[in-house]
Amino acid sequence: MKDSRGSRFPFQRLEARKRVDQFGKVILVGSGKGGVGKSFVACAIALLLSEKGYRTGILDIDIHGASVPNYLDVRPPLKSSVNGLEPKDSRGVKVMSVALLAGDNPVPMRGGEKQGLITQLLALTDWGPLDFLVVDLPPSTGDELLSAFDLLAGKSSLVLVTTPSRNAINVVSRLRRLARTEKVPIEGVVVNMAYASETRSRRTFPFGRTDRRFLEGALDSTIIAEIPLEPKVNSQSLYNVLHGRNSTSAAFRRLVQRWTVKEGHPRIHDT
Amino acid sequence: MHELSVAQSIADFALSEAERQDGKRVMEMYVEVGELMQVDTKVLADALNMVMTGPKLKDCRVRVQVTGASFSCRRCSSRWDMAEAKRQLGAVPESLLVEEPESDELPLHFLPYLYPAFIHCPKCGSSDAAVKEGEDVQIRRLVLG
User: Fold this and answer.
1) Is the CB of residue B100 less than 8 Å from the CB of residue B1?
2) In CATH, what number is assigned to the domain containing residue A163?
3) Is A120 in Cβ contact with B138 (below 8 Å)?
4) Based on CB atoms within 10 Å of each CB, which residue in A17, A34, A37, B71 is the most buried?
């Protein structure tokens, strides 16, 4: 007879891993730096993957500054069924975020509890089979990131988001180093707010011109997209911006092709 | 309804532990339920009896017990119990309650670690609260045959 006593058997971790087994690919969107547009990039990727017919979910683990529900125009309350919490639907994207449970309340949470919360959120959400789960990571290189790297290991790769600013790139390089030690593959770098189009032929560079050699050297990664600053994001829904005739939409559509036209793409469930 | 899903997760974990440790069957299991989750322990125990099936899980003796939740303030060191927490949880707006077929539940019923969003120190008002125990469902003991 074996008598095991544990202060905490990780039974919810097993449940979370079972959910992850139903995902084809996990795209982590992170930066380490705040204010560079991670959520904007993550939501745009999710919407366009869904539009291409892929079963797509987005998990917002920015516990202290969740903004995915705003970009995707979903709000509480959630519903629950015997299979768990039902994610909200936004144009075919399954959305889960702490903000859908906490609303506008701040969530002043510390250390290990964040790990518990992220595990529970992943374990309890009834994602069903997904071709893609996009994960919006918070700034910094703390508990949330380590939890995501750990729980989603083997399925995930990381999109680094930065602006052209050297200060931003220096901060993002810390996440790049963490990804290396945690053996998380890098998809590449999305340079957000790379320029602003004043007219069709005239561009300005509010954060400076992208120094490609410096950026790719500092982050040991290649640039996979340069997204212009899009003021319409403040007045229109992200969905409408992506469906307008503008260079932001065009840049995102080119970016998403890397996951949709590749041979052996992870469309695991043909409909 | 959440109780059934928790029970299934516990049963799945017990089975995986039996397999991992080459146990022939799970003989005894002690499950602790944090008061903060406000889980109906009778419903959870019934659900466990329903899902603990198959040669390795049937006839397992399951004990489910509630652990009282207690809180403290990191700012002023005040302490309080679940009665005070329940009073504060009564103010959670209806729009944040999770809709279940038969009733609406507090978010903490599903994600107890979310408590700092809803519970604050009754003395100084700080949200920098810590739950000392009784926040989560835990499997405390497994006896394998």
Assistant:
1) yes
2) 3.40.50.300
3) no
4) B71
A165 part of a folded domain:
yes
Q: Is residue A15 part of a domain?
A: no
- For residues A56 and A94, the answer to whether their CB atoms sit within 8 Å is yes
Question: Across the beta sheet with A79-81, what order do the strands follow?
Answer: A84-86, A79-81, B98-99, B104-105
Give the CB-side neighbour count of residue A46, counting CA atoms within 13 A. 33
Asked if residue A138 has a cis previous peptide bond (ω within 30° of 0), the answer is no
Q: Would you put residue B138 in left (φ > 0), alpha (ψ -120 to 50) or beta?
A: beta
Check CB contact under 8 Å for B99 and A123. no
Measured between alpha carbons, how far is A266 from A27 in angstroms, rounded to an integer?
Answer: 12
- In the chain, the amino acid numbered A13 is R
Angle at A99 between CA A55 and CA A147, to 5 degrees: 70
Mean pLDDT, chain B, as a whole number? 92
Enter the DSSP assignment of B32. E
Non-local (6+) Cβ contacts of A175 within 8 A are A30, A31, A32, A141, A145, A158, A160
Q: CATH 3.30.2320.80: does it fit domain B2-144? A: yes
Whether B103 has its CB under 8 Å from any CB of chain A: the answer is no
- CB spacing of B113 vs A116 below 8 angstroms: yes
- Residue B133's DSSP bridge partners are B70
Q: Are A107 and A63 in contact (CB under 8 A)?
A: yes
Q: CA torsion, points B87, B92, B97, B103, in degrees to nearest 10?
A: 30
pLDDT, one tens digit per residue, over A136-165 is 999 988 889 999 999 999 999 999 999 999
Residue A192 backbone dihedrals phi, psi, to 5 degrees: -95, 155
Determine the structural domain holding residue A211 and report its residue range: 26-260
Distance from CA of B84 to the nearest CA of A (A): 19
Give the tens place of pLDDT for each residue, B69-104.
Answer: 999 999 999 999 999 999 999 999 999 999 988 889
Cα–Cα distances (Å) from A205 to A66, A170, B4, in that order, read 28, 19, 55
